[in-house]
């Protein structure tokens, strides 16, 4: 799981609340993390692998939104691998980990492993939060300004730059003046927790707003295709709205326990003695949410692939086509029953719109150009290039 408590535990003079959760059934907790992360990792990779029955045709160039979705999955996979490695070491070498508690110890490797593994997990999941924010921004810009693959470089700079900057800054403040003599006090740890939860809270607050505005803009765009809002356009808008809802639902399910747990632990830290009897229920709630975090945080990778693509099936096709990236086949036409799918098949909606008059077609092309990224024209360009159709 991803929690700033992982870095806090690396300090020999850690606070009582961190000591409470990190020493609560460590073997059980590490086993839960390994199990959840392993299941999520295997199912996520299964979801992304090409499936039998996929068309061997040349795939169109991926949209920026489709690329962002793959990067989110990549961050979840790498973060899950970090959890598995860290928990495995904790289970396999308990004596090695015990040396972290020695403030004047001469062996630096336990502390280096503690800091390195915690920062790896935190950095990857923070980057995933930033990529999810970029996905919401890109979806909105595609509708409003026809943003495309040219903006992916800016997204890379913002995502990796901010994730690394906040992670390093928070850890540097936490371990000041040195790892072996971290300063005590809640005020000293607050900047570290703020830098950790800023991207998470950003996604929780800003993404729903951007998604709602994107859905409204798409509805207006589809209505302008024929001058009326037909059943096809209404169905398309509803499917897009449901897709955004699934993404936010997965995010809330996987990370709400972190916010609850952190709030409880901060409350305990402000008490003179966290072992007082009146605080028993709060301690129990903190420990329960701590275990829940170990289950839900790693499962984000698999649940996101379900929200992005739906269930893609078990029939994996490992015969790779030369020069072809199978998971870029997110165009709206389906080649077979188990083809790697776009989440929703919109091709029928597009072909239905071809029945309009010539004048209306010109107006439709102008509206479609707001969503397109390539140089082709008309509905085919929209189907092959727009993240509204290709990445969703």
UniProtKB/TrEMBL annotation:
The gene is Gpr143. Interacts with heterotrimeric G(i) proteins. Interacts with ARRB1 and ARRB2. Interacts with MLANA. The keyword Metal-binding does not apply. Keywords: Cell membrane, G-protein coupled receptor, Glycoprotein, Lysosome, Membrane, Receptor, Transducer, Transmembrane, Transmembrane helix. Residues 371-392 are annotated as: Disordered. One of its GO terms (molecular function) is dopamine binding. The chain crosses the membrane at residues 24-46, 66-85, 119-141, 153-176, 196-215, 244-267, 287-311. Pfam families: Ocular_alb (PF02101). This is G-protein coupled receptor 143. InterPro entries: GPR143 (IPR001414). Coiled coil: none annotated. It is a multi-pass membrane protein. It comes from the Eukaryota. It is found in: Apical cell membrane; Lysosome membrane; Melanosome membrane. Belongs to the G-protein coupled receptor OA family. Receptor for tyrosine, L-DOPA and dopamine. After binding to L-DOPA, stimulates Ca(2+) influx into the cytoplasm, increases secretion of the neurotrophic factor SERPINF1 and relocalizes beta arrestin at the plasma membrane; this ligand-dependent signaling occurs through a G(q)-mediated pathway in melanocytic cells. Its activity is mediated by G proteins which activate the phosphoinositide signaling pathway. Also plays a role as an intracellular G protein-coupled receptor involved in melanosome biogenesis, organization and transport. Gene3D superfamilies: Rhodopsin 7-helix transmembrane proteins (1.20.1070.10). One of its GO terms (cellular component) is apical plasma membrane. Its main location: membrane. It comes from Nothoprocta pentlandii. One of its GO terms (biological process) is regulation of calcium-mediated signaling.
